[in-house]
């Protein structure tokens, strides 16, 4: 494993792949350096009961198995990649990453998107309500969120069709229907739920790691003109539901121990159900690349509401969890302009277009643009571990 | 079949049941008079390939089979219940409805809730924004909707736990967390998607009945105090996500031919993708019963946006459909006070409590209250057909 690999031996994120160009069945793998370890094949060497979880077209069965199984699997995996030698047969089960096809890592049950970055929420407030307070009165009390469309969560690389929809042209009083003129991305981290909960039983912040298996990267593509016209009073709908892209790899929480940091200090007291004993801020640095140029570096460590807050809030009304639930942080933005997680903020609603090295500029994403998210976090060995890419190219509206 | 049965031979809604008190496996049945016809057992008499769709714990496989199969199955079913006699063996497969247990009829993929009743939207406007126009500027152009939580859609009879959440007490500036003080119901009809669509390809209004199998009844339980505090700017979230109850029976569109009526006239021109050639208004009369007293009769025929409009809008941005998608109309309210589909409207936000025959009054639902929805529509034979009950009893917050 090369020293600067995003997939060091202490990371071992899990995903679902098919090897080679074959039409072979999907199976669970772990990323290691430039390779993918076929866990279905390698696991058979152990004779353990959980190896059956690897012969599956999604991580869902493994997610449902819960923290004890996750721990055993990770222990075996760490041991395996650190001690086995070629003679053990492990190398027979390593596929070059360039020769595998990655799939959606899990079947998404419900998808929730939060709004947890204070910098993002304040930027949006400044842009859309320049005369008012940047943050709405509820923001420091409520981890604001909404349900998105689970059926349009797609794996990295899937085409992103420019959505059509209703928008109100400048100075018009009636809407038009057509391709969005304000296509945006949103750089986010996502939490993947493994263990379900019962309806009527809130999950306290302290049980976050008993339910959540790990973290992926998320691009919640957005159409800002559709959003502006439709969002009153029930929130964003078609502006978001056309596509959400996630990373092929889910990094187990257990691999993120070194990334754990305190959440930013509370600026007003939070209600008791949102108090927290453990640090679940995550020092994950995101990188946003547009057509090959890095345009932003949003820092997830800045998120005001952590994954543990979000989970406690999501279930505070007794809503139950299912295996495969995905909830994302909302756009991650830092305090600096070059740390913004959306075009809306980077080009300040079109008022200061982004200059690209090819001499063009962007206020919003154009057809043919390729947007790629990457991220890294501190790893056990002092290096950094990655999440894989979240890549999407904008196709013209069909 | 008794003449006034909600389940006449021309209705034949489908659901999922287990017979008797046994722990037998779930299977597909049709409601007929006071009985449930075991389609898994009866279907074997036909030797047709689609009988395998009945040996399933949900309608999803049948839903996915598409309109040709739906038509064949309905034809066989109509023929079967009209001509077979006891000697045919059909009676061996009829279970008294009182002796079966009904389940969630289908696995819900994504759940969307619209806001399609003009009377409801205007009532909400008058209550919450008394100084402004009752309808927001986008309402007559956009079938407003949002995604709800699919994982908390439950079958009739499941307990409804009073949700806790954040709300802002009167004249307070900081929120409290506790059981909702404003628990409400919402009487709605729901559309059940059978045939999926491709991402990037909107489904035009004219293809509504190629994708939608049928209609169920929906109670979208709501917590108005949570909603008021959380809904800006991303819409309702915990105020809705704790529970949504649906009827055990899905009435096929094919059984609703006589119920089809024109939608109310457009008061402003709609965009082309929302124009419609066929009438898909549905003359479904809903009845709301609180603790045994009928308190309202909302008329679904009044819905401004029909199921066909809703489907075209839902997919107008290229969002794909999956088998098992459920989208509901939003609260159905008619022009009269006694046609309101929510407590919010019936008691006008607490300002004129509902008087019940037991001498008590209600502004909102109390612990122990039982709320039941029923509905009927014109049937082929001149009678009326039903949807079964949507019943829920409010349990104290755990």
Provide a compact summary of the structure.
Chain A is α+β, with helices and mostly antiparallel strands and 398 residues long. Chain A has 9 helices and 27 strands.
Word description of this protein:
The structure is a homodimer of 398-residue chains. Chain A is of the alpha+beta class and 398 residues long. The first copy, chain A, has helices at 39-43, 60-64, 67-83, 118-128, 208-211, 224-230, 238-241, 307-314, 343-346; strands at 14-19, 27-32, 35-38, 94-96, 100-102, 111-114, 145-148, 153-155, 160-161, 164-167, 176-179, 183-184, 187-193, 212-219, 222-223, 244-246, 251-252, 260-261, 281-282, 285-290, 293-296, 326-328, 354-355, 361-362, 370-378, 384-386, 390-395. The mean pLDDT of chain A is 95. At the A-B interface, β7, β10, α6 and α7 of A face β7, β10, α6 and α7 of B.
């Amino acid at each position: 494993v090369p020293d600067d690999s995003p997939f060091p031996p202490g990371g071992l994120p899990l995903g679902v792949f098919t090897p080679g160009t074959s039409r072979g069945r999907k199976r669970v793998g772990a990323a290691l350096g430039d390779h993918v370890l076929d866990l279905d094949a390698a696991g058979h060497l152990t004779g353990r009961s959980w190896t059956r979880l690897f012969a599956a077209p999604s991580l869902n069965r493994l997610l449902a198995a819960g923290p004890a199984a996750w721990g055993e699997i990770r222990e075996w995996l760490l041991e395996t990649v650190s001690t086995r030698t070629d003679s053990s047969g492990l190398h027979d089960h390593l596929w070059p990453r360039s020769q595998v096809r990655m799939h959606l890592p899990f079947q998404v049950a419900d998808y929730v998107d939060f709004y947890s970055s204070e910098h993002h929420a304040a930027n949006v407030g400044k842009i859309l309500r320049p005369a008012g307070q940047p943050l709405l009165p509820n923001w420091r009390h409520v981890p604001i969120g909404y349900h998105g469309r689970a059926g349009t969560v797609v794996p990295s690389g899937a085409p992103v069709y420019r959505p059509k929809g209703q928008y109100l042209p400048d100075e018009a009083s009636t809407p038009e229907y057509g391709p969005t003129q304000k296509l945006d991305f949103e750089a986010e981290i996502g939490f993947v739920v493994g263990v379900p909960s019962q309806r009527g039983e809130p999950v306290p912040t302290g049980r976050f790691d008993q339910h959540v298996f790990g973290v992926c990267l998320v691009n919640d593509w957005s159409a800002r003109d559709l959003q502006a016209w439709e969002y009153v009073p029930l929130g964003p709908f078609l502006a978001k539901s056309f596509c959400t892209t996630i990373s092929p790899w889910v990094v187990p929480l257990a691999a993120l121990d070194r990334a754990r940091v305190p959440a930013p200090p509370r600026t007003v007291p939070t209600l008791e159900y949102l108090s927290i004993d453990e640090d679940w801020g995550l020092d994950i640095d995101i990188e946003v690349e547009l057509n090959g140029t890095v345009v932003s570096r949003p820092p997830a460590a800045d998120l005001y509401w952590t994954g543990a807050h979000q989970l406690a809030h999501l279930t505070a009304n007794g809503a139950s969890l299912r295996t495969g639930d995905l909830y994302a942080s909302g756009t991650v933005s830092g305090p600096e302009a070059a740390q913004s997680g959306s075009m809306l903020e980077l080009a300040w609603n079109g008022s200061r277009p982004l200059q690209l090295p090819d001499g063009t500029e962007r206020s919003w994403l154009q057809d043919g643009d390729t947007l790629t998210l990457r991220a890294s976090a501190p790893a056990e060995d002092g290096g950094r571990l990655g999440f894989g890419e979240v890549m999407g190219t904008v196709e013209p509206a069909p």
